Amino acid sequence: MAASRIVIENCAIATVDANDTEYASGYVVVADNLIESVGAGSAPTGLAGVVRRVDGTGHLLTPGLVNTHHHFYQWITRGLATDHNLFNWLVALYPTWARIDESMARAAAQGSLAMMARGGVTTAMDHHYVYPRGSGDLSGAIIGAASETGVRFTLARGSMDRGESDGGLPPDFAVESLDDALAATEATVDRYHDDSFDAMTQIAVAPCSPFSVSTELMRQGAELARRKGVRLHTHGSETVEEEQFCKELFGMGPTDYFESTGWLGSDVWMAHCVHMNDSDIAAFARTGTGVAHCPSSNARLGAGIARVPDMLKAGVPVGLGVDGTASNESGELHTELRNALLVNRLGAHREAALTARQALRLGTHGGAQVLGRAGQIGSIEAGKLADLVLWKLDTLAHSSIADPVVALILGAAAPVTLSLVGGRTVVEDNHLTTVDEDAVARSTRTEARRLARITAAG
């Protein structure tokens, strides 16, 4: 059967390939779900099976954005505990989060996914670790929402087995037993994980954090992931308090603790990694352990500035993360491109910390590396999946910025004229084509109010 082709032409292109190839005016040909060709000037003539031509004049074409850390359920608890550090924020919100159910998880996932997709995300992930007893099929609800939205998706099936009675922060009824957590995680991998080239759904093993899970869950979780051939994800070195906690409880810092439990490796990525010394960064580089950098959330909770320039120089894979929308209420990854550049320039390297193109790489190819999918997504190259975003840069907001990459990163949020996931249209003229945005907004409002009522009733 002949391929169906989409031709996008007359646009600036930032391929984010190994050579950072760019075209001031070029084209991309999509054949079915793959990028067939990319180059300067006009598209090849005589192409068969062309079902659509897109005039990209005034636009920049980039790889789709890749989000490497999120907590979708927090969409229905936005705007709370706005002046807290991480531990106090968790204590304030766990009693609410512990009451989520399947309907709430689905609505929150729909809201989180819709906001990201509309802003250029083509590959999303969710680190979901709150599984209250009797709450229903939360993983299935989240995966279903991702399927409806039409983005590629990694569910990092999280877990917690250290409740309040064991010195943890979450209420006891919001945590699982060691055996239940491992069994449910394995069942999720068996049911949903797809390791094919064009997979839409993948699963990672993801105990929440050193202060909410037992050492045995960390160890056995790593063993489970490697037995199943899936990736590992957790929070790491987010705050000074976490470092103190690890030293008091385990007699070592977070990175040494992770290494002792099998949690460093090229199949591992960790969220935040704000408080990393030279030895920690060297260990991540030596083992190929990845980092999900979440600048807005780190600023919102006063966690600090991650040493991203030093990580990149050492060879650590780094991507960007929205993080949960209770600590990054905008819920967009595009804002993280800008904030990654700006926040890191407040650190030791100042104006030399990151460039606009490095920020774009973090949000595309870097994210693909962190999720283990750099061979399929993250750059515009022939043979890769056609996950592409066409950004409109010819409006007042960007009218006097000559460099399109700088306009995208440092300018106002650019409208998305077209977003493709595997050649399928997900966004058209800044609106989702796969779901009803207004219906999602109504649903998330309803579930947020219901959760607030349940929490207030105790």
Q: Given the helix and strand composition, which structural class is it? A: alpha/beta
Count of helical stretches: 14
How many β-strand runs? 17
Shape: globular
Relative strand content: 15-25%
Give the averaged pLDDT, no decimals.
Answer: 96
Unreliable residue runs? none
Distance between the termini: 60 Å
Radius of gyration: 21 Å
Helix content: 25-40%
Q: Specify the biggest β-sheet.
A: 9 strands, mixed
Task: Explain the overall architecture.
This protein has 458 residues and is of the alpha/beta class. 36% of the residues lie in helices and 22% in strands. It contains 14 helices and 17 strands. The protein has helices at 86-97, 102-118, 138-149, 178-192, 215-228, 240-250, 254-260, 278-287, 295-300, 308-314, 334-344, 356-370, 404-410, 437-457; strands at residues 5-14, 22-31, 34-40, 50-55, 59-63, 65-66, 121-128, 152-159, 201-207, 231-236, 268-272, 290-293, 318-320, 388-392, 416-421, 424-428, 431-432. The strands form 2 sheets. Strands 1, 2, 3, 4, 5, 14, 15, 16 and 17 form a 9-stranded mixed beta sheet that branches. An 8-stranded parallel beta sheet has the order 6-7-8-9-10-11-12-13. Strand 15 and strand 16 (424-428) form a beta hairpin. Helix 4 (178-192) packs parallel to helix 5 (215-228) and helix 12 crosses helix 13 (404-410). The protein is globular. The model has no long low-confidence stretch (mean pLDDT 96).
Q: How would you summarize what this structure contains?
A:
With 458 residues, the chain is an alpha/beta fold. It contains 14 helices and 17 strands.
